[in-house]
Amino acid sequence: MAAFPFEISATDGKARTGVLRTPRGDIRTPAFMPVGTAATVKAMTVDQVKDTGAEIILGNTYHLMLRPTAERVKRLGGLHKFMRWDKPILTDSGGFQVMSLSGISKVTEEAVTFASHIDGSKHVLSPERSMEIQADLLGSDIVMQLDECVAWPAEEKRAREGMELSARWGARSKAAFGMRDSQVLFGIQQGSTFETLRLESSQRLQDIGFDGYAIGGLAVGEGHAAMCEVLDYAPDMLPADKPRYLMGVGKPIDLVEAVARGVDMFDCVLPTRSGRHGQAWTWDGALNIKNAKYADDESPLDPNSDCSASRDYSKAYLRHLFKAEEILGQVLLSWHNIAFFQALTAAMRDAISEGRFEAFRRDFAARYNTA
Question: Deepest of 132, 264, 302, 343, by most Cβ within 10 A of its Cβ?
């Protein structure tokens, strides 16, 4: 299996910055991946996404296999051509959405069987089928093993069952993925909030051997403090010379605290989802643009930003767009939020490179938490 070279250029405490080199372009870490669920980052064009500095996006196996179907995407030239994105794409395995979205799902050793949330049609997703969809039909650059994400809170017995099944599915995913020149496969650490299970999961994944490792099963309701407690030990259990990806996270403060604990990659729907509902993320925390206090506010969201949405439109105008239910409001706030998340990861990369990450972390938390 041809791993993408991962070069760590600087560390500051546990925080790391580096580059993951792929055939479709370099990914500077820490990296935030905008979520392109259904072959689109919601309310944004690919050119807008690129302009924010994003170097990789995430595609969703579950949604694409149901609509327009992975086979159709393949016929139309693969996911990159289909959505006109020529940089790297990471696809999730589909497992999380099967557990959370489908009205009926049944997990067995062989596969998960579920009913589509769109039309109720029955589907079977096995590790082998997930590899076929992601690697062969969608053509993603970074493929994720199929895993079982156990709901939180979970008793240790249930968390162990999910971790062990995920490990066995990881081995099957690796076997089905095989040897590839221009694609890589990541394994997913599970174990809920139990340190012993996380350690066993990590050891089993490393025995199988993956090109990168994800921390799964967090950001499922456990809260920031509990997540940080797991991250105090979970990243250290994974190989230091491979990328570490925290799945589905999160808020800006989550990203900063996770980087402080050795995480390299993130994805989350939060920037675009909150943007569509009038929430803007800034260096001083989140603000609700619909609030009356912005009705006559001529200042932009961020006068120092390179992003047009952040710099060139007043808060008063943005509030007006939302109050008038104009689509442009959702576009501009989604664009601003993605740009802010990219600016945040860029600032962390600089701080780590310059040996001042702890000061950055402290200053960010002080501003963010007093907003």
Answer: 264
3-state helix, strand, coil in the chain (%, to 5): 45, 20, 35
What digits encode the pLDDT tens for the residues 158-169?
A: 999 999 999 999
Instruction: Tell me if residue 25 falls in helix, strand or coil.
Output: strand
Helices (H), 195-314: 195-208, 224-231, 252-259, 270-276, 308-311
**Do the Cβ atoms of 243 and 212 come closer than 8 Å?**
yes
The owner of tokens 């992601």 is 134
Give the whole-angstrom CA distance, residue 203 versus residue 234: 12
Single out the catalytic residue among 12, 51, 92, 302.
Answer: 92
**The two structure tokens encoding residue 67:** 């609509």
Question: Hey, what are 117's tokens?
Answer: 């949330």
- Catalytic residue status for 267: yes
Chain centre to alpha carbon of residue 85? 17
Q: Which of 51, 147, 254, 267 is catalytic?
A: 267
